Amino acid sequence: MEEACGIDKPADAGTLKELNHVENPTDTIKPRDMLEELEESSEMKGTMENLDDGDEPSETAKLTRIAKEVDMTDSSGETVETPTEVEEEEDEVDEPTENMEKTQGKVEELDEIEKTTEAKEKQTDMLEDLDEADKPEETMEKSRVMVEEVEETVNQAEAVEKSAETKKDPKETLEKLTDISYIIYQAMGAAAVGMGGMVASLAMGYTSPALPSMRADPNFSITEEQESWVGAVMPACGLLGSVATGPLVDHLGRRTTLLHLTWPYMLSWAMIAMSGGVGGVVLGRMLAGFCVGVQTAAGSVFLPEIVQVDLRNTMFIFPSVLGTLGLLVSFAAGQYLTWRGLAWLGAALCVPILALLYPVPETPHHLTSTGKKEESMAALQKLRRSAQDAEREQQEISSSCSQDSTDVSVWEIMQPPNLWPVSVGAALMVAQQTTGINVIVFYASTILEANGGGMDSGTSSVLLGLVNFFSTFLAMIVVAKYKRRYLMTISTIVVVVSLLTLSLFFWAQTVGGTVAAIAQTLSFVPVVALLTYMVGFGLAWGPIPWVFLGEGMPSRVRGKAVAVVAGVNWASTFLTTKTFGWSLASLGAHNTFLGYAVATILGTTLILPAMPETYGQSTAQMDKLYLEAANKKQQ
Fold this sequence. Notes:
Number of domains: 3
Radius of gyration: 50 Å
Helix content: over 70%
Shape: extended
CATH class of the largest domain: Mainly Alpha
Low-confidence stretches: 1-32, 41-57, 69-96, 173-177
Number of strands: 0
Distance between the termini: 120 Å
């Protein structure tokens, strides 16, 4: 074989001639060398070592067959040199790549055997794991120990956290309080306005429990004519107070006016409580009416100027709740206190107004309009969350407020762009009173006693106050979520249906006969109608006219405009109160309530199309709306 391949010694010419077609003789691979190389490879050795006596015969036979196919030597270790084999070797020399491919195939078979062995080992490991899983008690014990360790770790973490909280730096707590200080200032201002409204509603409802107490007082005498003046003088003087509010809030300031108004408020109640006759009571009521007129107008200007837009609906809760609570306090406390004791209660309720208003700054609108921009910026930094918010709002206020706002005349209020919102505000106040609200309150006892159930006047008044109070919460929810004109429509429907029901009931009583008998069997109808009326009125017709004063009045003329509109409200209150007695005697109860229903429908129909929507709008945005509308009309 060595001579044939010509590797170990020179070949003769004949052999070279036979192998002249081989380009590179060194590429020829001996079969024995092929076997030795395969045995020395790491893959084959690893496979042979892993095969023990326990291997299956099929795998051993494969190895033997591969070795026999590769080993082409005889028993003496020399190469067999038959002619046929020589020719085959020559063919193999011609095609060495084919031999390499065969060898590679054998190696791949060995790899598959090795993989099979590894799979068997993995299977054995899995069986051992399954054997361990057959011991649930040990597994559960391990799980329980792990859970206990986790719980102990969590408890330790919570203890560390609590310890850290108790050791917080006082400066950090102070910083958190500072972060909400702007809300506290706004809430204090809103609460002060609310307490003022509470005292005002107490004054308005004072006559209901006080007049019976005066009649029962042996040391005090009063006639029916005097009683009418005790009740009517307050709204008449409220008109004067509203007119005086404009100059007061423009020259003194919104906060300053409300702060110093507390002293005459307390004096009015003291005059009533210490009065020895009707004259002293009337004078006290006149002063109280003047204070109520100023308070309602000034509070409507002050509150929206210190409260930011996104907190407006929340802060308006204070005036709404406390205002209606004053009426309930008047009715309820009047059942246990004399007319003098109830007056002293009114004086005591003025004290919290001072404590709430004193830390609150003056409104930025007033400070800017009077040329005090630095003080306005300082006030905004107290009333707003960040310096950026304060600067942005100061720019808006500066663009909407004029330096000569204190020189606004009544004639300017009636000119564009102020004519539109002022006219709507005045119309809302007139329509509010033509719904018959004050007449319903003054004559609630009579209406409820007409049902034949024997309900006394004191109980009926307290019931009315309770319904009025709880309807306020419903109003707060809907006012915060829905637009003003939509709520006015819903409120009108409820009020009109209630008034028509009362009118029909009283008409049935006047007809007599079977119809009157049927009406007597439906004694609960006027009670339900009256209470439904209070809920419907409190939904929109009660709060929205006053809300519009704060949200819808132009910044430049707000002080005088609110005073004029509030004066219209007090004038309407005085007229409806005085004309109710005449209407009841001349037209009858059924026509009187029918007239209130018709007036409510007409008022809503005429006002709503012209009423600007103030929901979610700032005062600067409303000023811009009025100015654009006026410019468009001039073009």
